[in-house]
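Minutes, project check-in

Agenda point 3 was the complex the collaborators sent over. CS summarized: two entities, 656 residues total, and the question is how they sit relative to each other. Sequences were read into the notes so everyone works from the same version.
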Amino acid sequence: MSIRIGIYGYGNLGRGVECAVHQNPDMELVAVFTRRAPESVRILTEGVPVLHADDVLSMKDKIDVMILCGGSATDLPVQTPALAKHFNVIDSFDTHANIPAHFERVNDAASASGKTAIISVGWDPGMFSLNRLYAQSILAEGETYTFWGRGVSQGHSDAIRRIEGVLDAKQYTVPVPEALSAVRNGENPTLTTREKHTRECFVVAEEGADLARIEREIKTMPNYFADYDTTVHFISMDELREKHGGIPHGGCVIRSGKTGIAKEHRHVIEYSLKLDSNPEFTASVLTAYARAAYRLHNEGAVGCKTVLDVPPAYLSPKSAEALRKELL
Amino acid sequence: MSIRIGIYGYGNLGRGVECAVHQNPDMELVAVFTRRAPESVRILTEGVPVLHADDVLSMKDKIDVMILCGGSATDLPVQTPALAKHFNVIDSFDTHANIPAHFERVNDAASASGKTAIISVGWDPGMFSLNRLYAQSILAEGETYTFWGRGVSQGHSDAIRRIEGVLDAKQYTVPVPEALSAVRNGENPTLTTREKHTRECFVVAEEGADLARIEREIKTMPNYFADYDTTVHFISMDELREKHGGIPHGGCVIRSGKTGIAKEHRHVIEYSLKLDSNPEFTASVLTAYARAAYRLHNEGAVGCKTVLDVPPAYLSPKSAEALRKELL
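CS then shared the predicted structure for the full assembly.
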């Protein structure tokens, strides 16, 4: 029997989950939920209903796992606990500082309803967190570094778009090559924010806008840009669409540590991602963890989990025997 | 209370475990077991007894986890099931083809005794297996590649040493740079054995030995060298000791796959290791999984597991709350 998947929220991430479900023969998409008028939403899968978010409880017994595809700022803090009262749920909540509070809310809801939830699934938080954990546990003495990019930061792109005179913008986060190679060489450098990443901005300005002011406002924006070396390129709308239409991302987690009685041996562990589509990759991780949630729930696991709690084998459609034989 | 560790077998790997235990404040080494005369074995830790392997049962109630540090060819197939009758055990059994049979034997023993065993812990099998599993589960459509090296293969070095006229030898397994970069570019090439790795041999021959014959015997040796492009360098014993005294290794697992409704987006996941000391790194992985075995056992988990079954959080000395807050 297939794992029956629901998608709650149908933007880039929701579409990514829909595509990922197609790639996993043990899963079946049974409904997409939206806050828009359902008849206005066209999905990629024929024969699957698009329902209004308000009608979600009508599908309570027809969905094994609900994958939440809303945003972390305002959607998920409300939606994940609310839906965990009725469904097994997966989300990609990625506001690192608020994960403990989100965990508690979702855990309370899922524990009370007897459902299984896995939160903060994706690549960071998610696969990068896992790799920080494995690497730190193995190399007890050492330093862990996370680099992001080269890739598009949606939050930083949005921040530029809010500046007066800006029509559109795309911001790339870029690791500093010298920092990256020092870390890969096992030098364990101490790096400031500025030394780790630069920010590259492609901006379409209104005709006649004060470009010097826009550039200054970007470069001095607190939290977003002030602590970084930032480059601003003004380009045309055509060029933005043509050359900067994608949502690539990636990055790496590197741990460098020493072993031996005199710490005489150095080891470097690196996990890296090069992603053409950030939302589709995140969606693929969510979908694999939906399988894990389904299995955990069938075994009686109740409450909230994170990627750190889930046995790796639960992600795979293969049996434990097959995994030991083919892959271990 | 510390996790009380026993080391069974005291070669390079056993010494590596001893060093790793020093780096983990929640662990304590309580005994080292050897088949040699115990008084002839000097260990690095003061005050810890070296006991004969025959006396292992005298420590039955004083050891939480026994880490087995013997070889996969003849030691572990016998020792792990035998010790799992009395102890929680960890081993690094690495003969891939025999893992299912070894698993069954250890599982039978541990299930009967109510103990917890984790087998085939290390980097391959081990961390590489985990990464194959995670990457395949996330990118359902794609190809997985494992490259080993540049590093010393003990088995291939031994095979050369058995040739007549050879005094000593060191063999390096080396990934072919062109293959590696095609895989990293997401080209999903089909690669033969010869196209993936080359073998580089540093050989010390007896004075007057027939070097051409030795080189021919190496290059045509079935299984070990015949399917590879092999380079043989004859060097002096001094040079071998000076330049090839270490046991470095490493390698990478790369999965490249596509997502999107028309498979229009490519993603590359890479996990790589650069290790100054193969046995000390393997020992560090074993030690982290000893912590997991201890916890699993305390929770009532009985029988044999592999790295694929163990929730990542069990490897860390930190609490689940701390991990969510600091690392997720």
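Noted in discussion: Chain B touches chain A through 70 residues (CB under 8 Å).
Follow-up: revisit at the next meeting once the mutant set is ready.
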